[in-house]
Amino acid sequence: MTALEEVVGELERSGKYATLCRATHERIAFWALQRHPRPKDAAKAAKRKLHQAFGAYLDPGAVASAERLTAGLGEAPSPGALAAAARDILRHHASSAERLDDLEGFYAALWHATGRPRHVADLACGFSPFALPFMGLDPDCRYDGIDIDTRLAAAADRFRALTGRPGGVTADDLLVHPPAGHADVALVLKTLPCLDRQDPGASARLLAGIDADAIVVSYPVRSLGGRDKGMAESYREAFRRLATDLGRRVDEPEIAGELVFVVT
Prior knowledge:
The protein is of the alpha/beta class. Helix content is 48%, strand content 15%. The chain folds into two domains: 3-55, Orthogonal Bundle (Helicase, Ruva Protein, domain 3); 60-263, 3-Layer(aba) Sandwich (Rossmann fold), CATH 3.40.50. The protein has helices spanning 3-13, 22-35, 39-55, 60-71, 79-91, 94-97, 103-114, 150-163, 192-198, 202-209, 231-246, and strands spanning 119-123, 142-147, 167-171, 182-189, 211-219, 250-251, 259-263.
């Protein structure tokens, strides 16, 4: 067994990170081994890195609730039942819960800024697929989501299927496998700071590799604890500098509760 396989095996056996996709385990294990040649030390460093990038943002209990509530919908739920379950699921996830007061308004503002899409690619989607009943997409608009958590992706894809929405939610690592194919709108919501904590420069590489007519990027304006630390101005300055380096045009629609940019 190689050192990489040993560290990956340790991550796959860990209770907290076992459901992350293989590409993420291998990427983080490789990163850790570059800094800690002993597999035991590398495994500890890899878990610390995963906590910073993933564990601090997602409560496994939230995924369990999403699985339970989705399973409880049966095979042919009514639109009302889907919407009620979606709200319950989104309430269990801190980032998604912040939009609950006006989900319809949030997505309506996005499509107003980008134009109505026929294909949406939701990158590092997290719990966003459970907001499908409130997105106001046309019936034939395709929705594809990508997330590193295999368990979350499976629950989200089952929910997507129950809505009748064409597309799919899959588990993969955007830093290993950049998104393939063209989309009208790519969503990268509250994701870039997390990616850059894992790998400086990841944001630039991801944005440069996205094939979409419009890319919607958002940032949180408060910490997980609800504090305003001047995050909006800091993120605004950093993102506009990044967009300039990439040679992209940036608009900033006014959307309450979130710092949003539309990149074309």
